[in-house]
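Because discrete structure vocabularies remain unfamiliar, we first show an illustrative case, written as a sequence plus integers encoding its fold.
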Amino acid sequence: MTTTLSDPTVLIVDDEESLADLYAYWVDSVAEARVAYNGDDALTRLDGTVDVLLLDRRMPGMSGDEVVEAVSDRDHDVRVVMVTAIDPGFDIVEMEIDDYLVKPVARPQLVDTVERMLVRTSYNDQLQRKFQLVEKKVTLEAAKSPHELDESDEYTRLVTELDALERELDSAVESFDDTDFTVAFRELPGGGTVDSTER
């Protein structure tokens, strides 16, 4: 996948310095990589030029969850990916994150995730929200049993919002011409593509 951003920047935040540096080395093939080793430093280094934030969740001092809240309060237009050893819980439904990776993470997975996030920076708010919800849904379905999903109010709210948003997007697609459709849906979950002949 080739990103369309001329100078994409990724900020990597992890208190395990050797791991943060390794991620930076991997990411450097597709974007400028910056590193912070704690939450406070992350917020200092985060500015309007950062496109993607790779964030450890459990850190001494300011946790990854607290960093996410601070980023949301600042209203930064940045895609946020948790990269953590903590298994996902239903609390991620309410978190302002775009994806959730559980360590250990291999180089291809990390680079692919960064590339997908960079592509999504060009999407409008509705499409970005859709992909946020899809990633959370996939993450929870991989981590939880069907019974746990059925019993979760958070999961039910997520699915309900996603269904409603997809209906809105389907209505919008009906008014697209061929060029609009191809541009808007060039990237789909799982790496698939759709062109106008498949409608």
Observations:
- The first strand starts at residue 9 and ends at 13.
- Residues 153-173 form the longest helix (21 residues).
- Confidence is low (pLDDT under 50) at residues 179-199.
